[in-house]
Amino acid sequence: MDRPTEDLIRRAAEAIAGADALLIGAGAGMGVDSGLPDFRGAHGFWRAYPPYARLGLDFRALADPRWFRDDPELAWGFYGHRLNIYRATLPHDGFGILIHVPGGSVTL
Fold it and tell me: Contact at 8 Å (CB) between 28 and 39?
């Protein structure tokens, strides 16, 4: 590894070590690897929410807050079902790695 790259890595490590907090955006990859549905791809969404497929509603349409005003039962059903899926899912091993960062404290 060349010297400028080593210096950049050292500086990044120092910044992380000295931070009061660190926010890691893992994206959908770790969630999908944990077994959560892929909300960008219609197949994962429709497997998780078959009743909404029959209504012709996709994830983006259902995630609109207007449903809480227009059809609260539909909105709470959608978000309640999502919550149950998340509660029943075992996290991907990557989350465990993040939790066990030396000196770290992680809120999931």
Answer: yes
Query: What's the token pair of residue 5?
Result: 């790259």
Side-chain-facing half-sphere of 29: CA atoms under 13 Å: 7
Read off the amino acid at residue 58: D
Amino acid identity at 105: S
Which helix (H) or strand (E) segment holds residue 82: the answer is helix 72-88
28, two tokens = 């959908």
Tokens for 29, please give them. 């990859």
Q: Is 105 helix (H, G, I), strand (E, B) or coil?
A: coil
Q: How far apart are CA 19 and CA 42, in angstroms?
A: 39
pTM of the shown model: 0.57
% the chain with pLDDT above 90: 21
Q: Cα separation of 77 and 107, whole Å?
A: 26
